[in-house]
Amino acid sequence: MKLIIAKSAGFCFGVKRAMEIATEAAQKHPKDLHTLGPLIHNPQAVEFLEGLGMKVRERIEDIPRGTVIFRSHGVSLGDLVKARKKKLHIIDATCPIVKRAQVFAKHLHRHGYTLLIVGDAQHPEVEAIRSYIPERVDVMENVAAVQRLGPWDKLGIIAQTTQSFSLFKEVVAFCVERVKELRAFNTICRATTVRQMEAVEIAKKVDCMIVIGGYNSGNTQRLAAICRDIQPHTYHIETSQELRPKRLAGREKIGLTAGASTPSWIIKEIEQKVQSLKAKGLKDL
Amino acid sequence: MKLIIAKSAGFCFGVKRAMEIATEAAQKHPKDLHTLGPLIHNPQAVEFLEGLGMKVRERIEDIPRGTVIFRSHGVSLGDLVKARKKKLHIIDATCPIVKRAQVFAKHLHRHGYTLLIVGDAQHPEVEAIRSYIPERVDVMENVAAVQRLGPWDKLGIIAQTTQSFSLFKEVVAFCVERVKELRAFNTICRATTVRQMEAVEIAKKVDCMIVIGGYNSGNTQRLAAICRDIQPHTYHIETSQELRPKRLAGREKIGLTAGASTPSWIIKEIEQKVQSLKAKGLKDL
């Protein structure tokens, strides 16, 4: 049995940065330390941070005093205003690539473009981006949804940073038919594109694919969906406990990748478990 | 036999306007009246203008004095400067929609976008647009050509006003993969899109398609190509003399359309010829 591990698996730059900021904050401001929502979409990493004394709070209203860390996905304008009003000590761990998407969204709105976001309307990153635009912003998760919209005079398009590039491209191609002017910023994070491309390449070569990451992580969900389209034996798991040996029985090539918010220690644990199963002989599982 | 004639066949707004400007000029400035290149891409219409005393000259150098009419496709910056230097009396018959494409091209260049034109590099309209941009401008007639270009930071895309919309869309979709920012102005003339769409609908219904217009007319050539993709029995002709009765033999439904620079009198003549053949009985041809 051969195990192929994606080079791009695991923490991206923005997640790594947010984890460093949070760990440092735990040392400097150990008292009344909170994150607004989970810092990153990985329950095990969040548990680690809670071990350092950090409390996850869903609303600013639930943080009476002390420090609030804004998570990697960004903060909405409403929450930002509330946190300032409450005079909370603010530490901003928003991913710079997410911030860039916010800047482009504001820029397009300011210059008279109707804004369209390719992304998941429920995702905190998209909710935050939308909150800075004083007008209605349509969010599209598939091309079918776009077909109900338009035509537009001036249309601006950006994407959630972890969206699938092929969807972004499809939406742009569809919309250009219905506009006088279209302006699109490719706000998809390069790390996401590289991770998706590598996953596709590995999925083509293997007879079983393991995708590791939080079930609440949008980019991990999309990564699993992309792999499943190519290799139906794709399993999305969060931890090594969830790795069922029977699923690997008889497989000759196993691929492994992980979302942007998956800690390296979890990837390592799963890798070791696969290797130990291999030593036992996968055929006999 | 049924004859279906496209409602959109014949002179578009810009060509009609250019013909009116030229006819008026022939009355007001009958002496030393010239057009720089053919006013529109239709030999029969140009012949009619020559009958009014208008001379077609390919270069400003060949116009010693008098009046010069700039054709519907626009004039290059170089020729404009030369005409002014020579103190020729200038009458500008550039189509306002072509002028709009020139304005967007300049706007994109001025704002730091690398300019890409979807069009035919040899067409006078494209040559004129390009001449206003002091840097190299790539012109693409198919998607294969775009694949050799990029990536770009800021890419601006416009189209020759009579281009096929599906090509414009394909180029935009391809380029969005290779840019940080893409800005596209849909400069394709609405009349062109409507004419192409109507031709497609008619071509689907008939067993023979006649496309009328100058062999040197880009939009007529594209119209014929679009129809031929659907109905192989598509014939591009310039005049009624070229209508070969044998080609219509046995056809039950005949479609008819014409390019943007095809005079109505030619369309009428061909329609009458088809009707007279019909009266004779197409089956016996």
Short summary:
2 copies of one chain form a homodimer. Chain A has about 280 residues and is α/β, with parallel strands linked by helices.
Would you kindly provide a written description of the structure presented here, covering whatever features stand out?
Two copies of one chain form a homodimer. The first copy, chain A, is of the alpha/beta class and 285 residues long. Chain A is 43% helix and 20% strand. Chain A has eleven helices and twelve strands. Chain A has helices spanning 13-28, 43-51, 77-85, 96-110, 124-131, 143-146, 165-175, 190-205, 218-230, 245-248, 264-280, and strands at residues 2-5, 33-36, 55-57, 67-70, 89-92, 114-118, 138-140, 152-159, 179-185, 208-212, 234-237, 253-258. In chain A, strands 1-12-10-11 form a four-stranded parallel sheet, with helices on both faces. A four-stranded parallel sheet of chain A has the order 3-2-4-5, covered by helices on one side. In chain A, helix 4 (96-110) runs parallel beside helix 5 (124-131). Chain A is flat and about 60 Å long. The two termini of chain A are 13 Å apart. Chains A and B meet through helix 7 and strand 9 of A and helix 7 and strand 9 of B.
